[in-house]
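RECORD TYPE: inverse folding
INPUT: structure tokens
STRUCTURE:
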């Protein structure tokens, strides 16, 4: 985790330098503030990851001589046949278009989003792939 933390810390430094240069060149406060806040968020993540890396210790991902078998084999369950992520993505796109263009489209998008999220969450409770 040390490498990840150093990457975020480097990003914080990079965004800080870019924010200072941007403010010096343009004199614009809004863009400089956004860049400075981005650097601050990167610093927070980098600090947390570096702080956590002391407690976690060395992972197989951190060891250059580790084999693939050294990692934890259980990464979770991923559904290979599910069409619900596509439905959630399309409903999110309709919702975002509704935010831009029309209230009726926003209402329809939120309704579609709720239906697709319910289908996604309860996919394994009913139908062909339900647990017996």
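DESIGNED SEQUENCE:
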């Amino acid at each position: 985790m040390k490498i990840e933390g150093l990457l975020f810390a480097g990003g914080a430094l990079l965004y800080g330098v870019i924010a200072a240069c941007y403010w010096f060149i343009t004199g614009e406060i809004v863009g400089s503030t956004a860049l400075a806040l981005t650097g601050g968020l990167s610093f927070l993540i980098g600090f947390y990851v570096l702080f956590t890396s002391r407690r976690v210790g060395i992972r197989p991902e951190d060891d250059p001589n580790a084999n693939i078998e050294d990692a934890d084999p259980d990464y979770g369950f991923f559904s290979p046949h599910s069409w619900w992520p596509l439905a959630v993505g399309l409903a999110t796109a309709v919702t975002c278009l509704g935010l831009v263009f029309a209230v009726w489209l926003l209402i329809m998008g939120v309704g579609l989003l709720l239906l697709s999220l319910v289908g996604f969450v309860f996919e394994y409770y009913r139908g062909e792939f339900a647990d017996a």
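NOTES: The chain has four helices and no strands.
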